[in-house]
């Protein structure tokens, strides 16, 4: 089962437009339950230095691990 | 020691390097520009890039390319560069990675949930209608799903540039310019090198490795969408959707390719990946 890290709306707003390693950007995404999340890779690859720069240390290690529950849309090819 | 050729008259883009005790190596200046931009220091990787560029030029394919992503160096910092124009600019189609990617010496692996790379290359502004190709080297064999390896589409899904290596119905789909005619093929294994090429308003072809696998001769009215092409997902009017989970070690976007050019392209790319010990 794929798991992801859940975000609040405020936390999502902090991460949008920011990089987690000075090269790659966060992509907070909405799931089928209306919850925001980031992937395990984005969570794990955030460096301590970068976490300090973003000011997210206070809540970073408290982000809940939840099952990946994507919005499924049968978009045409 | 480096010997410059044609620097003053600016028409012979090669340099020759002679190492102590070794033979002469002719370095292509376009390869050197990429190697410098991406800070590639490994001799095997440098040689592979140089050979790739010279092979593409020899086959008269190089000038047909708008963007070439060779994914060399093993990090996002080295994987972002466009071999055709290695400047750190959106206008040079340098990749912008978002979401969860795993970068390694074998390529770039999107996580299938949030990862995509924006090429900043839009069909309407940067490609020619009825004359375009996309290519994607997949190192992963994954189950059929609604996952796009690369592409972009307009909101009404009437025009797109995209490839699904194995959709939910088990088929490969390659589309360029119009969703009314696409190259379709029953695919049982998603590893391999995939090229989809449109060379006229009534010819779209798909290739897997060295084989032509699908042709569609339906006449279309080409409409190029105005949304940049993503890798690892599809840009639905700039919103990433259809996240993919296939590791890639080569992607290109450019003009349409003939059968012979597609075959030569496969040979060059396969040699390149074989040199780097990551061929499939």
Question: Can you tell me about this structure?
Answer:
- The complex is a heterodimer of chains A (about 80) and B (about 280).
- A four-stranded antiparallel β-sheet of chain A has the order 2-3-1-4.
- Chain A has one domain.
- Chain A is globular, with a radius of gyration of 13 Å.
- Chain A contains four helices and four strands.
- Chain A has helices at about 10-15, 40-45, 50-55, 55-60; strands spanning about 5, 30, 35-40, 65.
- Chain A is of the alpha+beta class and about 80 residues long.
- In chain A, a hairpin with a 5-residue loop joins strand 2 (about 30) and strand 3.
- In chain B, a hairpin with a 5-residue loop joins strand 2 (about 15-20) and strand 3.
- Chain B is about 20% helix and about 35% strand.
- Chain B is globular.
- The N and C termini of chain B lie far apart (about 35 Å).
- Chain B has about 280 residues and is of the alpha+beta class.
- The interface between A and B is medium-sized, with 22 and 30 residues.
Shape of chain B: globular
Amount of helix of chain B: 10-25%
In angstroms, what separates the terminal alpha carbons of chain A? 27 Å
* Largest sheet descriptor of chain A: 4 strands, antiparallel
Distance between the termini of chain B: 37 Å
Q: Oligomerization state of this entry?
A: heterodimer
Element string of chain A (H = helix, E = strand): EHEEHHHE
Radius of gyration of chain B: 18 Å
Beta-sheet strand percentage of chain B? Answer: 25-35%
Put simply, the count of helices of chain A is 4
State the total count of DSSP E strands of chain A. 4
The largest β sheet of chain B comes out as: 9 strands, mixed
Average predicted confidence as pLDDT of chain A: 94
Mean pLDDT of chain B, to the nearest integer, reads 92
The H/E string of chain B reads EEEHHEHEEEEHEEEEEEEEEEEEH
Radius of gyration of chain A: 13 Å
Low-confidence stretches of chain B: 1-12
Task: Give the uncertain stretches of chain A in residue-range form.
Answer: none
Give the strand order, joined by hyphens, for the main sheet of chain A.
2-3-1-4
Specify the structural class of chain A: alpha+beta
Number of individual domains of chain A? 1
């Amino acid at each position: 089962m794929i798991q992801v890290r859940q975000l609040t709306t405020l936390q999502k707003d902090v991460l949008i437009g920011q990089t987690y390693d000075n090269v790659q950007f966060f992509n907070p995404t909405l799931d089928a339950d209306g919850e925001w999340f980031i992937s395990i890779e984005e969570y794990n690859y955030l460096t301590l230095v970068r976490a300090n720069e973003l000011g997210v240390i206070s809540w970073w290690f408290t982000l809940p691990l939840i099952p990946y529950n994507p919005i499924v849309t049968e978009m045409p090819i | 020691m480096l010997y410059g050729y044609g620097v003053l008259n600016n028409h012979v883009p090669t340099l020759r390097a002679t190492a102590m005790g070794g033979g002469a190596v002719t370095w292509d200046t376009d390869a050197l520009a990429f190697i410098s931009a991406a800070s590639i220091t490994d001799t095997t990787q440098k040689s592979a890039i140089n050979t790739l560029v010279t092979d593409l030029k020899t086959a008269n394919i190089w000038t047909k390319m708008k963007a070439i992503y060779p994914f060399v160096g093993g990090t996002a910092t080295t994987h972002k560069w466009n071999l055709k124009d290695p400047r750190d600019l959106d206008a040079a189609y340098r990749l912008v990675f978002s979401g969860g990617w795993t970068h390694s010496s074998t390529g770039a692996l999107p996580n299938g949930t949030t990862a995509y790379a924006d090429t900043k290359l839009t069909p309407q502004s940067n490609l020619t209608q009825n004359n375009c190709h996309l290519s994607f080297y997949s190192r992963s064999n994954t189950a059929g799903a609604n996952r796009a390896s690369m592409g972009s589409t307009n909101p009404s899904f009437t025009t797109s540039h995209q490839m699904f290596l194995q959709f939910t119905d088990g088929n490969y789909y390659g589309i360029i310019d119009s969703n009314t005619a696409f190259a379709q093929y029953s695919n049982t294994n998603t590893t391999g090198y995939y090229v989809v090429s449109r060379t006229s308003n009534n010819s779209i072809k798909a290739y897997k490795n060295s084989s032509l696998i699908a042709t569609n001769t339906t006449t279309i009215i080409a409409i190029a969408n105005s949304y940049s092409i993503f890798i690892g997902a599809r840009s639905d009017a700039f919103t990433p959707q259809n996240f993919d989970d296939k590791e890639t070690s080569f992607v290109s976007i450019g003009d349409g390719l003939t059968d012979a050019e597609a075959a030569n392209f496969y040979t060059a790319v396969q040699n390149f990946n074989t040199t780097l010990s990551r061929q499939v």
